[in-house]
Amino acid sequence: MIDKCVSIEMALQHVRDGDSVMLGGFGVPGTPFTLIGGLLARGTSGLTLIKNEANEDGMGASRLVEAGRVRKLICSHLGLNATVIGMMNRNEIEVEFFPQGILAEKIRTGGAGLQGFLTDIGVDTILAKEKRRIEIDGRKVIVEPAMRADVALVHAHMADRFGNLVYRESARNFNPLMATAADTVIAEVENLADTGELDPENIHTPGAFVDYVVVIEEITPEYGILKHHAL
Questions:
Q1: What is residue 71's predicted lDDT score, i.e. its pLDDT?
Q2: What is the distance, to the nearest Å, from the Cα of residue 221 to the centroid of all Cα atoms in its chain?
Q3: Of 3.40.1080.10, 3.40.630.10, 2.60.120.200, 3.30.70.920, which CATH number belongs to 8-99+147-217?
Q4: What is the sign, positive or negative, of the torsion defined by CA atoms of 204, 207, 211, 217?
Q5: What does the pLDDT read at residue 228?
Q6: pLDDT tens for residues 164-189?
Q7: Cross-strand bridge partners of residue 192
């Protein structure tokens, strides 16, 4: 029987300098803080991070940026992180913004094997700068390319040894999308079940998308607002 559970060191050896890395999460819920800490410990650098935001100063994704490990950040906003905003304004990091829904759809279409999608959101604004625009039935639309990454790091409430994932409450945000849109998917999980124990009706990400499972040994203060209970 396939067992994808590995140590954090073994899992993160598949993240290389210069990789594009998707990070699940919306604020705290769903952010893979343990895996992020592992990347810091490994010294991995030159990364392109894809995340909804950069978390708050001094935590999560912001720690990677502040440590100089990130070449480029692709996100939807930075409003809660004055440190990263300052780095962006000083040209210490490249930042590319997308509206949140557009970012999510770019990832979803990447995971679905599509080349992109058409949208009229921002068609007459700076969001359309340098993007291809076409006309369909008299309406101008933007051709928005799909997005994939070398690696996705996601957080789940529970997994089995095959990598079937269950997310809890608002932690089910960008994680399911990102788990389909990367060449290598590493999931950190709070609880582990044996293969076959999870109710198939409750599985959010099938194990076929997941390459490695890392069980969190300690729930650190960064996870503070999450509530934890067994299945």
A1: 98
A2: 20
A3: 3.40.1080.10
A4: positive
A5: 45
A6: 999 999 999 999 999 999 999 999 99
A7: 159
CB of 154 within 8 A of CB of 185? yes
What amino acid occupies position 167? Y
CA–CA distances in Å: residue 112 to residues 39, 148, 181: 28, 10, 8
* Nearest alpha-carbon partner for 81 in 190, 89, 124: 89
DSSP notation for the chain = ----B--HHHHHTT--TT-EEEE--SSSTT--HHHHHHHHHHT--SEEEE-S---STTSTHHHHHHTT-EEEEEES--TT-HHHHHHHHTTSSEEEE--HHHHHHHHHHHHTT--EEEE-TTTTSGGGTTS-EEEETTEEEEEEE---EEEEEEEEEEEETT--EE--GGG-SSHHHHTTSEEEEEEEEEEEE-TT-S-GGG-SB-GGG--EEEE-S---GGGTT------
List, for residues 108-155, the tens digit of each pLDDT value.
999 999 999 999 999 999 888 889 999 999 999 999 999 999 999 999
35-57 pLDDT per residue, tens: 999 999 999 999 999 999 999 99
Rounded to whole angstroms, the Cα distance separating 39 from 65 reads 12
| Strands of the 139-145 sheet, one edge to the other | 116-119, 139-145, 133-136
